[in-house]
Design a protein that fits this description.
Bound molecules: copper (II) ion
Organism: Enterococcus dongliensis
Helix content: 10-25%
Keywords: Metal-binding, Oxidoreductase
InterPro entries: Cu-oxidase-like_N, Cu-oxidase_2nd, Cu-oxidase_C, Cu-oxidase_fam, Cu_oxidase_Cu_BS, Cupredoxin
Distance between the termini: 68 Å
CATH superfamily of the largest domain: Cupredoxins -  blue copper proteins
Oligomer: single chain
Strand content: 35-45%
Number of strands: 30
Mean pLDDT: 89
CATH class of the largest domain: Mainly Beta
Pfam family, one: Cu-oxidase_3
Protein name: Multicopper oxidase domain-containing protein
CATH topology of the largest domain: Immunoglobulin-like
């Protein structure tokens, strides 16, 4: 009798527990509105994960960006790297990953990592059709790799986790640039050390140019009217040091300080003209929504892998880690002495100080920039469909229920074939997060988001796409190079925890 009573109490208690957890889950699911606009708005107001349930059930951090107390400093412009051999068809670059010390904040210098310098890296310019050799040297204390994010090149030169370089060693890669003009970037990709190395400063830029980009007459005076903006968040201890282990979060490390090209609270002096900014969203995990403080529109002209067919007028632009965009901002109507602010999640990513008038090549917002095939339903018929399910939180993150294994090939793909990749982001009892999904060695097109057409500024070449909770994103992917390529979440801590797979293209 006593035992039966005990059993019933246990059953009732379990039922209450299941009910409670279930209703929290349902509450979470239905108190969120998944339309793009609301996500952007909520992200902008910084409230995204103040949701008590998220705090309880997932580790997703929501560290607010602090307004900077530091006075405005001139924006650092990454140097353009000189080629070490001058020949139009074949160029060579030398890149050294090294430790450094950099004046980021007032007072003590910060111990950092950088390429060929103290912090971040230079710009590597390359032209379509060129043969490029890059001699890489690892002067770090630990192993690293040099991953060319967005380049469509064979996997043995891609710089993924299979191509690590031990401390003190060198390696050369040679490839041909076979893709159109675009703003790409490079960063480390060694398994287990990607996140900390990026957080401490390893990231550089690659500009691909072609006949089309030269003919478009867009602003192209580097550092004057064509300026790269590597936007990142980091935290600093009282002694101005970056402490990755202390800031570490298994669902994505965030910092409370916004940096653009390593500059806190930066300014540039600009003439009244069209300004071109090449934005790289380069945080470990923070997604940024960019806007102008005047709320004026600007034009997006390029996505991750090249120009859009025509400029897209926007009031705000969301970029998750790994994504890039080129935007044009019209400063012509402002007066000498005015300041326009580019905001990232309401923090100042750049102060544009207007200094003097300059008549320049006038950008026409209706201008045709590119000739990307629009996707029609017919062309998708008969294509293979690859399901990619992104699931889990923290150390449970996985793709198709599997965590990364260097010795396992997850997918086999045919060279030169096109496929539809259906990327699903499933929430779990543990919580929900948006995952920036990146595929190596390809530039893809977004077919749809939850069955609907993507936003017009997403109708360009992409290598990274933000997949929101409970969202299904369809991609048109074509494999142009043979070898073993990674696909993964670009929240670097998720990638480290195994939200990554490998496909063999042959
Ligand atoms: Cu993720």
């Amino acid at each position: 009798m006593k035992n039966i009573k005990k059993k019933w109490i246990l059953i009732i208690l379990s039922a209450i527990l299941i009910g409670a957890v279930g209703s929290i889950f349902i509450y979470k699911k239905y108190t969120r509105n998944y339309t793009e606009q609301s996500i952007q708005k909520v992200e902008k107001s910084g409230e995204r994960n103040n949701n008590m349930m998220s705090g309880m059930m997932g580790n997703e951090q929501n560290l607010d960006l602090k307004p900077s107390k530091q006075s405005e400093r001139q924006l650092l412009i990454p140097p353009v790297l000189e080629t070490s051999s001058q020949n139009e068809e074949e160029i060579t670059y030398d890149i050294v990953a090294r430790e450094g010390e950099f004046q980021i904040k007032d007072g003590e210098k910060t111990e950092t990592l950088g390429y060929n310098g103290e912090f971040l890296g230079p710009v590597l310019r390359m032209k379509k059709g060129q043969k490029v050799t890059i001699n890489t040297t690892n002067q770090l204390a630990s192993r690293t790799s040099f991953h060319w994010h967005g380049l469509k090149i064979p996997s043995d030169v891609d710089g993924g986790p299979h191509q690590t370089i031990e401390s003190g060693e060198k390696k050369s890669v040679t490839f041909e640039v076979k893709q159109e003009a675009s703003t790409l970037w490079f960063h480390p990709h060694p398994e287990g050390e990607t996140a900390s190395q990026v957080y401490k400063g390893l990231a550089g830029l690659m500009y691909v140019e072609d006949e089309n980009s030269k003919s478009l007459n867009l602003p192209e005076n580097y550092g004057i009217d064509d300026i790269p903006l590597i936007v990142q968040d980091k935290s600093f201890k009282a002694d101005n040091q970056i402490d990755y282990e202390n800031d570490y979060n298994s669902d994505g490390t965030q910092g409370d300080t916004l940096l653009t090209n390593g500059t806190i609270n930066p300014y540039v002096e600009v003439n009244n003209r069209w300004m071109r900014y090449r934005i790289v969203s380069g945080s470990n995990s923070r997604t940024f929504t960019f806007s102008l403080d005047s709320n004026e529109p600007f034009y997006q002209v390029a996505t991750d892998g090249g120009f859009l067919n025509t400029p897209v007028k926007l009031n705000s632009l969301t970029l998750s880690p790994g994504e890039r965009a080129e935007i044009l901002v019209d400063t012509k109507k402002y007066n000498n002495g005015d300041t326009i602010k580019l905001l990232a999640n309401d923090s100042v990513a750049l102060n544009m100080r207007i200094r003097g008038r300059k008549t320049d090549t006038t950008f026409i917002p209706s201008k045709k920039l590119n000739d990307i095939n629009t996707i029609d339903e017919k062309s998708l018929e008969g294509l293979n469909r690859q399901i990619i399910n992104l699931k889990g939180m923290s150390h449970m993150v996985n793709i198709n229920n599997k965590q990364f294994d260097m010795n396992r090939i997850d997918l086999y793909k045919k060279l030169n074939e096109q496929e539809i990749w259906e990327v699903n982001n499933y929430s779990s009892m543990m919580g929900e997060m948006a995952h920036p999904f990146h595929i190596h060695g390809v530039q893809f097109q977004i077919i749809s988001r939850n069955g609907k057409q993507p936003r017009s500024n997403e109708n360009g070449w992409k290598d990274t796409v933000l997949v929101n909770p409970e969202e299904r994103v369809e991609l048109l992917v074509r494999f142009d190079h043979a070898g073993t390529f990674m696909y993964h979440c670009h929240i670097l801590e998720h990638e480290e925890y195994g939200m990554m797979g490998q496909m063999e293209v042959r």
